[in-house]
Every structure is written in C-alpha cells, then in structure tokens.
Please model this.
Amino acid sequence: MLLAPALGLACALASAQTPDKLISGPGATLTENKCKICHELQHIRRQPLSRGEWADNLRNMKERGTPMDEAEMAVILEYLATYYNREQPAPAPAPDTLAGGGADPVAKLLNAHACSGCHSLDKRVVGPSFREVGQRYAGDTGAAARLAAKIRNGGQGAWGSVPMPPAPAISDAELATLIGWVLSQN
Ligand code: HEC
Ligand code: HEC
Model:
C-alpha cells in the first residue's frame, strides 16, 4: 500500500536529476566525487547495502585505490548507510550541508592554510594544479618528503619563477594529509 507512492516519488526524483547523481544529503558530494573516480554511481544506486556491508565495501574500495582518509570514509559511510541502506528506507533528500569543504578534511585544510587561493585541482591559478603535481610525481617515492619541505619552507623553480610562500604554521599531520591527497591526483 505504502510502497507504490514511494516508488513513484523515487522515480520522479530520479528522472528530475541529472543522470549521475546520488540522493542529495549530507556527504553526497564527497561520496560522488570519490566514487566517480573509477565507476558510475549506478554501482551505489542499484544495490543498497546494510551499514556493515557498506563499511566492508568502503575498505575494499580503499584497497582498490580510492583516495580517501579515515575521516572522509566516516562521512561517506554515514551518508551511504543513511541514503542507500537496504535495511531501512531513505529519508527525504536534504541539503548537502557537508558540501563545499565543510566535512571534507582536505578542502578544509586547503582553505584554512590558504592553499586554495593559489591552487585548484585541475586549473593553474598562481601555482600548478594539484592534478599536474600528482602526475609529475607519480611513482616518485621521495616526492612526499620533498614536497613537505617545499610547502613548509616555500620555494620556486619547479614550475616557473613565481615563488610559493612558506607555510610555517602547518602541522606535520596536516602536511601528510594534504600531500597524500595531492599525490593521489593523477
Ligand atoms: C580506484 C577505483 C575505485 C574507486 C575510486 C571506487 N571503486 Fe568501487 N569498485 C572498483 C572496482 C575495480 C570494482 C569491481 C570489483 C569488485 O567487484 O570488487 C568496484 C565495485 C564496486 C561495487 C560493487 C561491489 C561488489 O562487490 O559487487 C560497489 C557497491 C562499489 N564499488 C562502491 C564504491 C563506492 C561507494 C565508492 C566510493 C567510496 C567506490 N566504489 C569507489 C573500484 C573503485
Ligand atoms: C601565494 C600562492 C601560493 C600559496 C598560498 C600556496 N602555493 Fe603552492 N605553489 C605556489 C607556486 C607559485 C608554486 C610553484 C613553485 C615552483 O615553481 O617551484 C607552488 C607549488 C606547489 C606544489 C608543487 C611543489 C613542487 O616542488 O613541485 C605543491 C604540492 C603545493 N604548491 C602545495 C601547496 C599547499 C598544500 C599549499 C597550502 C599549505 C600551498 N601550496 C600554498 C603558490 C602557492
């Protein structure tokens, strides 16, 4: 009795959305961005899992190379277990309050340390795009340590004559998070 209208609503919502989108909710954008790297979001939509199964799936996806840290994984798990849970109906779509860097620890750090003023993921701003940095150092095992020193102390010459200013306030842990993320953009 209740099922038919609910399905009708789901179909109407699905057809009103652009094709490769997840249900809007806190963490949807982060989930889309991470999971679209390798496959269509259809993988998520067609097969709701239980919370425990999503947790296993996320570990598996991380092993397969999804660039996400523990904090991001926690946000994604919460989102999937809420909106794509085979054991409970999804709540109504809600604004993604975690979009725009709110819950994405990397985006937060990039904003907090003003990196985003000079860098973006795929366009040159004042400095190189993070994607071209990731590509240049792919497979270079010494790159992480060199980039850490370069970001902390500033420097120039690797991409042109414009210098990057030093960032003395950034912690080792923050640097490790940012560099791990940059080096996975390739
Ligand atoms: C680095 C590439 C990569 C990324 C990024 C990725 N996946 Fe996958 N995913 C795969 C591969 C490869 C398979 C198919 C292999 C398999 O069935 O285990 C797969 C399969 C799946 C399946 C079907 C699993 C099954 O056992 O049938 C689901 C569900 C899934 N991914 C969810 C996700 C979610 C959620 C994300 C985002 C957090 C994600 N994937 C990100 C590579 C990736
Ligand atoms: C005022 C602008 C500016 C800010 C702020 C800035 N950068 Fe840069 N960044 C640059 C420039 C310019 C370069 C290129 C330097 C060069 O040619 O060696 C660069 C280079 C880099 C590189 C590549 C270094 C190399 O040797 O290949 C990384 C990684 C990087 N920045 C990360 C960051 C991070 C993370 C932050 C924030 C903590 C940050 N940047 C803040 C301007 C900036």
